[in-house]
């Protein structure tokens, strides 16, 4: 029997494949389509204190091998989440990670404090990396001292796993990972979307209402791999690798460069069962390679470190 599970701060995830925030709703939307008990965990859509409508349309654009979004953190708000979504999530046989987004440090704390009073939440993922809002989002996530402060303050409020979702839209993501590790975070999610844009040449206008948005999907996988690799050189806490994972082979690449586990995101818009397929594929690969534990893949890439450009500034 192959060991597929892993733990963050004592919470055991049954396998190393979670579904990424914003790509799986609050879980209940897909309950007739996906057996979520076969996933390591569900990361919910970001929650703020009050409901948010998000940005005006158009807020999704398909691009070559990718997707641009500018949703603007549309969500039902933490109170409606507790009343309408948490009862379902309490029954699922997988770990529930609630993603929190906020416009101020106070709001992060208020949302987390209220969630701490509820049953059925296994941990938190903190979104400091949304590129589609004017307040919060990248204002926080590109400011290393602010990212550290948010992590420190939230750490003081919970004993549950605290995972910080980092943006790739900075020069050295490893500095941010180090800061949140020092602040007491238990893990980092690497990466959120890459700022991008698309233009309608006939209208001579940007396709997204907000001009720029966040690029995801296979187009960003090479970027995400390099960021995970960079972070893995810098910190000891687990890394949840995200960015264009469509298949088990993609997930294995992330593990090899240092991710402890992965999150499947944009692929869910094509097939919400992708995460389950990736988890099964990962187990099959481990079987074929006679591994006792999927952990044997984590950081197992052999590289010529002396040729690595990254090492020169880490
Ligand atoms: C959004 O709601 O705009 C996307 C969320 C994110 O990129 O963090």
> By helix and strand content, what is the structural category?
alpha/beta
Structurally, the number of domains stands at 1
CATH topology type: TIM Barrel
Name the shape in a single word.
globular
Q: Widest sheet: strand order?
A: 3-4-7-8-9-10-15-16
Q: Could you tell me the radius of gyration in angstroms?
A: 18 Å
> Percent of residues in beta strands?
15-25%
Which architecture per CATH? Alpha-Beta Barrel
The largest sheet, given as strand count, sense and whether it forms a barrel, is: 8 strands, parallel, barrel
The tally of beta strands, per DSSP, is 16
CATH class category label: Alpha Beta
> What does the oligomeric state look like here?
single chain
> What's the overall average pLDDT, rounded?
97
Which bin fits the share of residues in helices? 25-40%
Number of helices, where a helix is a run of at least 4 consecutive DSSP H or I residues: 8
Q: Output the CATH homologous superfamily.
A: Aldolase class I
